[in-house]
Amino acid sequence: VFVHPDWDSGKLNNDIALIKLATPATFSDTVSPVCLTDATDSFQSGDLCVTTGWGKTRYNGGSERNLGCLGGLLLPSAWFETSVQTKE
């Protein structure tokens, strides 16, 4: 496992790792390559996105033991700005 050298568990940036397989993966309906975005890519409100991970699913909850997957539409930046202001 190769963890990003700048990963910090207290931050959201660089939260990525690579796994080197002992043998090549066999692609199928359930195993496929993933395309990572470039830092210069931009996304629009309403774009379809998929997020996976083992993060928290509840406020003050612990990390999940099983990989989670969530699909949905990207919300406009203004929604997040309003939500953060109301929580402070």
UniProtKB/TrEMBL annotation:
Which terms in the Gene Ontology molecular function aspect does this entry carry? serine-type endopeptidase activity
List the InterPro entries.
Peptidase_S1_PA (IPR009003), Peptidase_S1_PA_chymotrypsin (IPR043504), Trypsin_dom (IPR001254)
Swiss-Prot/TrEMBL GO biological process terms: proteolysis
Q: Where is the Peptidase S1 domain?
A: 1-69
Q: Does the keyword DNA damage apply?
A: no
The record's keywords, sorted A to Z, are:
Disulfide bond
One short Pfam family name for this protein? Trypsin
The organism's superkingdom is given as Eukaryota
- This one is known as Peptidase S1 domain-containing protein
Q: Please tell me the species this chain comes from.
A: Ophiophagus hannah (King cobra)
